[in-house]
């Protein structure tokens, strides 16, 4: 990425070898996530040039000194939020809230990058990974070992959207069985939220999307009812279907107009979970009296409140045992060179996940 709003370019770059505590990973599959769209649209200012991509799996090809829990040949899913393991949140077991990570500044933990142009100019790795690439060098903590039999495309999705969506249900909101739930937006994260609600035993599961194909996919994944997002009486319809309001509403788009509709859809004591990412600086309006009077809550959800080293293998095992039909999330695969077309697939907001194969 050489400029916001411009197409990505595919070009040869120089990648240094591994340093202490690092591993090199050959990328075998990388999903195209909504955060990549935010990135190329310029919603989140970044240093350029930069390599996008953060939802990836691959095989370890090299390990640095001091790495003992990952070996050459291991199949890994990459985590885009490498925690410091030293800050108060990390020490409290809340790695997803690390206040000390350089990943969100698109840097390796020491503030550097392993990649340069052929003219020796630094090229920054998106979320510390920069996985729209044939190979990456990342901290060993970013490479979570998964079973060899896990398909790479599935592993890639576990690296972001699946873990975010399932974690939003099971870790952030801790939805109990029988709870009523609404899912706003049926893209990659919304679809994974529906799978998480299925796992948790939520009922009903009401999915909302503008696109009829996305609504059909949502039903296929386990939504018990779907609503057209353009319905002007959406809030009243949800209240009627849930006999007074839903226990949980998940916003998986990151749009302020839908965020504003979440609290009114809740019953007293209900919980809205914001799992979609808005542009930085966006503002949404809420009715604070309704929130206080009705004891409603709004929870923020980053990366599904997950601990990747625990959650990636756990989700992989649920898939391999047939309890999580993650195959249903994969749309088409494309070669890495078609990354701009893959971003268009996502912008159209009609299909399933496009996965790039380097
Ligand atoms: Zn993502
Ligand atoms: Zn930390």
UniProtKB/TrEMBL annotation:
<keyword id="KW-0862">Zinc</keyword>
<dbReference type="InterPro" id="IPR013154">
    <property type="entry name" value="ADH-like_N"/>
</dbReference>
<dbReference type="Pfam" id="PF00107">
    <property type="entry name" value="ADH_zinc_N"/>
</dbReference>
<keyword id="KW-0520">NAD</keyword>
<protein>
    <recommendedName>
        <fullName>Enoyl reductase (ER) domain-containing protein</fullName>
    </recommendedName>
</protein>
<dbReference type="InterPro" id="IPR013149">
    <property type="entry name" value="ADH-like_C"/>
</dbReference>
<feature type="domain" description="Enoyl reductase (ER)">
    <location>
        <begin position="3"/>
        <end position="356"/>
    </location>
</feature>
<dbReference type="InterPro" id="IPR020843">
    <property type="entry name" value="ER"/>
</dbReference>
<keyword id="KW-0560">Oxidoreductase</keyword>
<dbReference type="Pfam" id="PF08240">
    <property type="entry name" value="ADH_N"/>
</dbReference>
<dbReference type="InterPro" id="IPR011032">
    <property type="entry name" value="GroES-like_sf"/>
</dbReference>
<comment type="similarity">
    <text>Belongs to the zinc-containing alcohol dehydrogenase family.</text>
</comment>
<dbReference type="InterPro" id="IPR002328">
    <property type="entry name" value="ADH_Zn_CS"/>
</dbReference>
<dbReference type="InterPro" id="IPR036291">
    <property type="entry name" value="NAD(P)-bd_dom_sf"/>
</dbReference>
<keyword id="KW-0479">Metal-binding</keyword>
